[in-house]
Design goal:
Elements (H helix, E strand, L loop, with lengths): L3 H19 L2 H16 L5 H18 L5 H26 L1
Helix pairs in contact: 1-4, 2-3, 3-4
Length: 95
């Protein structure tokens, strides 16, 4: 069983690894949002990408009765990325 500190450390490592592989969250989530907009027919913001990806992980955890450590790690990572892109979006608006 993973404790809070271990889960958050694993999420930190996953976010850093994926940031190197796919680009930092702000750029990557902007790209995802741009791809989702024509599919959904509505504007999509980067923080909404994080929310939707977190919801995916929650749905999977419900199906697995909460017993899938990787989904908990990813959920924490998406929360961190969502907070980061929101902060960056706020900074972009004031620049």
């Amino acid at each position: 069983m993973m404790n809070r500190a271990d889960l958050l450390q694993a999420a930190k490592e996953a976010v850093e690894s994926r940031g190197k592989a796919y680009a930092p969250p702000n750029g990557n989530f902007r790209r995802i949002a741009a791809l989702w907009e024509p599919i959904l027919g509505i504007p999509v913001e980067p923080h909404e990408v994080a929310l939707c990806l977190a919801a995916l992980k929650i749905a999977r955890l419900v199906e697995a009765d909460g017993d899938h450590p990787d989904s908990w790690i990813d959920l924490a990572g998406y929360a961190a990325c969502g907070a980061e892109v929101t902060t960056e979006d706020d900074n972009d608006a004031t620049s």
